Amino acid sequence: MFRQILAILVFTLAGPALARETIPGVDSHYRVIEANDGTRLDAIIAIPEGNDGPLNPLLFTQWVSCGSIEYRAGSNARELLAQLARESGLALVRVERDARSDGPGPGCAELDYDTELAHYIDAYRQLLVDPLLDPSQVFIYGSSLGSTTAPLLGLALQQSGFDVAGIMVQGGGAVTYLERMLHFERHYLERRPAEVTPAEIHAEYLARARFQFEYLVNGRHPDEIARDSETLARIRHDTLGLGESDHYGRPYAWHQQAAQRNFLAAWAALDARVLVIFNEFDQFEARHGHELIADAVNRLRPGTASFFLRRNIGHSDNRYNTIEDAYAFTNGQPAWQEAAAIMLNWLSQRGRW
User: Fold this and answer.
1) I need a surface site. Which of 115, 161, 193, 313 has the fewest CB within 10 A?
2) Are 235 and 214 in contact, with CB atoms under 8 Å apart?
């Protein structure tokens, strides 16, 4: 009875709808949910065309940059998701991060990390009662920085009594957020040989490490840090993605809150199969952070985590001839089909888990 009542509350909310996506071979069903803080969010359940029975859900957690999660032809990430919706035998479930215009709540560009995660948890708990879904087994896929929210979401659902059977991640590891951003700085110095000489890297990296610690761990505003010294002032205006009031299009608080999260503890507490994919030419992330997930999980639950290394592939599933080309985002060729094949093969084994 509770499941039926909650389903009615979730699916009869009125208001302006998104333009409907069209994925070949897939039926997309739109929903509106209301998070615990009153924010109204659009959601999409995508199932194979003509399917007439409930399917186990594949919940998606998104990368850091804002923008609708609806299907768009030609986007590597969205083509991969479409392939999963067509061929995985699961229902692909996505939640938009922008609050709807007919209610309160922030747009994605104002959304902090803690609130984004809370919205995912609220939304997916509610959506799991949808008649299109069979919540007896729940699967999660986290892409890029969605790889950090995926285990946190999974743990929250597990603690709510759901069977989180499997989690797939690509483009984000389990190191601390500070380590992650320091790795960004290391790449920024090492992969621009025309601008930075090897002899300059040592001192420059140490200065950048100080800036990142003050910003992420101590929670200071970048402009305040810049007043500490001329070196830090220069770094404030030469940190990748750091704008006058945002970082990669998100509030400073998003990154500062992420830096307080213990991702590895969440992975350790989950009772789920795990697939980790690392792209060798990732422009941002480190192999170590990805392997850390698989290694930690396999030490606790032997044989339950798989790690895949994809050669010559960048963060966004393009293939490059050299790592320098990848860092400059030049001459890349789409390679998302290979990632989809790895995921589909892994998911096809779920009946034997």
Assistant:
1) 161
2) no
- Angstrom distance (rounded) from CA 113 to CA 33: 19
Using CA of residue 299, residue 300, residue 303, residue 306, what is the dihedral sign?
negative
Q: How sure is the predictor about 6, in pLDDT bands with cuts at 50, 70 and 90?
A: very low
The predicted structure's pLDDT at residue 19: 60
* DSSP states of 189-201: HHT-TTT--HHHH
Looking at the predicted structure, is the pLDDT value of residue 60 above 70?
yes
Helices (H), the chain: 2-11, 76-87, 113-127, 146-159, 177-190, 198-212, 222-226, 230-236, 252-258, 263-269, 287-300, 323-328, 336-348
Could you tell me if 286 and 254 are in contact, meaning their C-beta atoms sit under 8 angstroms apart?
no
What percentage of residues in the chain have a pLDDT greater than 90? 88
The amino acid at 308:
F
For 14, counting Cβ atoms within 10 Å of its Cβ (0-12 exposed, 13-18 middle, 19+ buried), the class is exposed
Q: What is the pLDDT of residue 352?
A: 75
- Reported as a single tens digit per residue, the pLDDT across 109-121 is 999 999 999 999 9
Q: Delimit the CATH 3.40.50.1820 region(s) of the chain.
A: 2-175+262-352
In this prediction, residue 191 carries a pLDDT of 86
Say if strands 138-143 and 91-95 run parallel, antiparallel, or are unpaired.
Answer: unpaired
Quick check: helix, strand or coil at residue 265? helix
Examine the pLDDT at 12 and tell me if it is beyond 50. Answer: no
pLDDT above 70 as % of the chain = 95
Cα 195 from Cα 212, distance rounded (Å): 21
Distance between start and end Cα atoms, the chain: 31
pLDDT of residue 37 exceeding 80: yes
Domain 2-175+262-352: give its CATH superfamily.
Answer: Alpha/Beta hydrolase fold, catalytic domain (3.40.50.1820)
In contact, 202 and 315? CB cutoff 8 Å? no
276 contacts 310 by C-beta, under 8 angstroms? no
Q: Is the pTM of this model over 0.90?
A: yes
